[in-house]
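Could someone model guanosine-5'-triphosphate with this protein?
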Amino acid sequence: MPQGVIVKALSGYYYVLPEGADLRTATTVTCRARGVFKKKNISPLVGDVVTYELTENGEGTVVEIFPRTSELIRPPIANVNLVVLVFAVTEPVLNLQLLDKFLVHIENTGIDVLLCFTKRDLLTDDHAPESKEMTVSELERITRLYEGIGYDVLTTSSKLHEGVEAISQRLKGAVSVFAGQSGVGKSSLLNEMISGVDLETNAISQRLGRGKHTTRHVELLSLDEGGLVADTPGFSQLDFMELEVEGLGSCFREFAEFSEGCKFRGCLHLHEPSCKVREAVAEGSIADSRYEHYLLFLTEMKEKKRRY
Ligand SMILES: Nc1nc2c(ncn2[C@@H]2O[C@H](COP(=O)(O)OP(=O)(O)OP(=O)(O)O)[C@@H](O)[C@H]2O)c(=O)[nH]1
Ligand SMILES: [Mg+2]
Ligand SMILES: [Zn+2]
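Reply:
Sure, complex below.
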């Protein structure tokens, strides 16, 4: 039976690239999923390696899904080994709470992550108190914060074609996915990175202050220098259904070296005596914003649990 990779999922159809074919030149096989998947509550994901059967009309049926090496639920994609977490420096306003939330989810999957700040051309130098724009020095501070935790951070401008080479280099040979809010410029950046690709992009709705969800499906694209990358629709809501409160602390990378020293095993770093994480926050070794977000997420998770 032929084998392939799902490169696109749209309205119940799965587009399968036959094994060994080049995504840039080959045509994909349009497939439906076998009914049994639905019954078992399994949905094929972009990135899935599958076997398929050809049907009479030249289309196909996905028959079997091979075990996944990784799986993300939002955005829905399998078998990626790098998440490029995309946030704009402004438009939409950079929200560090949302950024930390995304990071928790990615840490929980164990997939490697690269932080990418887009729209560098919109940074301002002056410190006008009323200005909503992000300043150069503020972005430097944020970059240092996340680099200090151990994340790779890149800054780009698709408009000025800056930082595009650096990110292309980083993605070479990997299977990666662009994730982030609507309107941050994921599709714009991919258009700059990949020759011959023209993904739809759209201005942020001024009235709503957020994107219009221009990209509506997940799709794998072939990188010029080898590797695959998926564009995904932006989203702004994430919940913590797949995580236990006890596991949250380990999704904050920089807590690890301190939490080992906490007096109580399973310390939640709340009010427990001799909590080394809280001491690190007080000393400034852990950023206030990160600890604050940890507390917020913990509360949110507890409330969710109570409701179900
Ligand atoms: N100034 C500036 N604007 C940018 C840049 N990159 C993207 N934009 C603009 O931001 C808007 C949104 O860009 P998209 O690429 O559609 O954003 P997206 O992340 O793909 O959005 P969704 O598909 O809805 O998730 C468009 O109007 C782009 O022109 C940039 O580097 N600088
Ligand atoms: Mg898009
Ligand atoms: Zn503790």
